[in-house]
Design goal:
- It is a single chain.
- By secondary structure, this protein is α+β, with helices and mostly antiparallel strands.
- Among the domains are: 98 residues, Immunoglobulin-like (Sandwich); 120 residues, Metal Binding Protein, Guanine Nucleotide Exchange Factor, Chain A; 132 residues, no CATH class.
- It is 28% helix and 28% strand.
- The strands form four sheets. Strands 1, 2, 8, 9, 20, 21, 22, 23, 24 and 25 form a ten-stranded mixed sheet that branches.
- α4 crosses α14.
- About 16% of the residues have low confidence.
Length: 553
């Protein structure tokens, strides 16, 4: 027993042996044979793959990222699931302007890279292509250094050294009274004294005029650049300025501009358009929550100008004249009745029964010593104002919702896509017609602090442009716009310093004041900053103000 305990302490029995009988020996031999066959087959497979230089079953699959259309409609669940880019989470107006160029250039570079790669690429685990060349396999690395392969498979070295197109950014302004188009072109990647040539291409229907411009430098040319008016086709004179090129093109026809102005002079979302659209709901443009059930609204009516009382006072030049009964009735404003909505320039007046109370909140105190209180959607967006009216039947709340904060939804008609800047220009144009003033101070609705100085330099102009980078605006287009001079007021500017700031610029001490939500002021500043980049650097300021434009509908 002691001998067994000693062997157990060593955890082994030295004098043990195993005897293999016939069946066990045969099974072990078969296992060894199968293992050898598997090893040989594996080595042979490796050799076959090494001859081709790659593993055929490991092709890289390129996943093209989905780029959502910024102007596309999204549902509320899609909006909630979608995360905002980190670059777009900014707080101040200056931060929006700074991040716009960086984010847009990176996004554009990624998109171009994806398009160039195609649908197939080399595997990351495959060896480099240099070891497949004859010089590398023959054991002479010095020969491989002297021979240069083409930069792109299937292309020659001569073809790869050529540039596909000029890096062009431009803006073309149509001056109708002078009957010419001024084009300012900036070219990247070229010396400042490079000679360029320009040519206007004829259209298919007319061989003598066209609206496409081509800029050439030897064998390299730009993509076709759209012009805002018809120009005589042929070679055009292009002049070199300080840091840009300038063209002055004579307009040969004005029929297109007249029809374009007639089409764009219609009001934005007026009573006629809403009546034909027959919306069932008005939803919030930020989160798509329903704000107004318009199925009970049977009539839309246009309101007169905001300054109609001033016009009435101008008409009544004698004290003994009596006002019309209807004018006297509406002396304190126009208000909708049940089943009715009144459409103003940039807002729509709704009666209490048609508004969805569960999706909106109102402030307790009015703003700017008025009876109006701010109205917000549940998502936090400011959508308008409300006011309580004392009628014979009791107290009724009237809601004044902003057109750019609500969107009509109709099952039978497609809603119009009106840019935000079009409503801002419409508000300024109303003051131009009533008071002949072109200077404005844009303030935010919440804090009542000035955010922008705006000079409506040219209320109506046709532009064609191509931006160096895109973020808030489209990359290129031919649009109806308003040319403005502006200045972004720093958030640190106090109200007491505003008077001194206005005195620096002519005409601004008599400027009109427009109030918008803070988010709208930030978006407006971002649009203006990006439009400024369409001009050459030496033309981006005038009288101490920045030059830009706003897209009209």
């Amino acid at each position: 027993m002691l001998d067994l305990l000693g062997k157990a302490s060593d955890r082994r029995l030295i004098d043990q042996s195993v005897i293999l009988d016939g069946p066990i020996k045969v099974r072990l031999e078969k296992a060894r044979q199968q293992d050898r066959e598997q090893r040989d087959a594996f080595v042979e497979k490796l050799m076959q793959h090494s001859e081709s230089g790659r593993y055929h079953t490991q092709d890289a699959v390129l996943q093209v990222p989905k780029v959502r259309d910024l102007n596309g409609l999204v549902s509320l669940p899609e909006f909630i699931r979608e995360s905002m880019p980190q670059e777009a989470r900014v707080l101040g107006v200056d931060a929006i302007a700074r991040s716009s160029s960086e984010v847009s250039s990176q996004a554009l570079a990624n998109e171009v890279a994806v398009r160039k790669k195609g649908s197939r690429n080399r595997s990351m685990s495959a060896p480099s292509l240099s070891w497949l060349r004859p010089s590398s396999r023959s054991g002479h690395p010095a020969d491989s250094k002297t021979k240069k392969s083409p930069s792109r498979p299937g292309s020659s070295g001569k073809g790869s050294s050529r540039q596909a197109a000029l890096d062009i950014s431009y803006i073309a302004e149509h001056h109708e009274t002078l009957q010419h188009v001024l084009v300012f072109v900036s070219v990247g990647g070229l010396a400042s004294n490079t000679d360029l040539s320009a040519e206007v291409l004829p259209t298919v229907e007319s061989g003598t005029e066209g609206d496409l411009l081509i800029i050439r430098n030897d064998a390299v040319s730009s993509p076709p650049l759209t012009l805002p008016a018809r120009i005589a086709s042929g070679v055009q004179d292009i002049k070199l300025r300080n840091d840009y090129y300038e063209l002055k093109l004579s307009v040969v026809s004005t029929s297109r501009s007249q029809s374009y102005d007639d089409r764009t002079s219609a009001p934005l979302m007026d009573a006629t358009q809403l009546s034909s659209l027959k919306p069932t709901n008005f939803i919030c443009t930020s989160c798509s929550l329903p704000l107004v059930h318009s199925s009970a609204i049977v009539e839309y009516k246009d309101l007169p100008s905001e300054h109609w009382e001033e016009l009435v006072d101008a008409w009544m030049c004698h004290t003994d004249q009596t006002l019309h009964e209807q004018i006297t009735k509406h002396g304190r404003g126009f208000w909708p009745e049940q089943g009715q909505a009144l459409v103003g320039g940039s807002y729509v007046l709704f009666e209490d029964t048609s508004v969805v109370k569960s999706t909106i909140t109102t402030t307790e105190r009015p703003k700017r010593a008025e009876d109006w209180r701010l109205v917000r959607c549940m998502c936090g967006a400011m959508v308008g104002r409300c006011q309580e009216r004392h009628e014979d039947g009791g107290v009724i709340t009237m809601y004044r919702l902003l057109k750019y904060a609500i969107r009509p939804v109709s099952p039978t008609a497609k809603p119009q896509r009106v840019p935000l800047s079009a409503f801002i220009v419409e508000d300024m144009s109303e003051y131009v017609q009533a008071h002949a003033t072109y200077r404005f101070v844009i303030s935010d609705e919440e804090d009542e602090r000035p955010r922008l100085l705006m000079w409506l330099f040219k209320p109506s102009i046709r532009l064609s442009y191509m931006l160096p980078t895109e973020y808030f605006l489209k990359k290129n287009g031919s649009i109806h716009a308003a040319k403005v001079l502006y200045k972004v007021i720093r958030p640190s500017t106090k109200s007491t310093d505003l008077k001194d700031l206005l005195n620096k610029y002519p005409g601004f001490p008599q400027a009109e004041y427009l109030f918008y939500p803070l988010d709208i002021c930030r978006r407006l500043a971002g649009l203006l900053r990006e439009s400024t980049r369409s001009y050459p650097e030496s033309m981006r300021t005038m009288t101490g103000l920045d030059v830009g434009w706003l897209h009209r509908a």
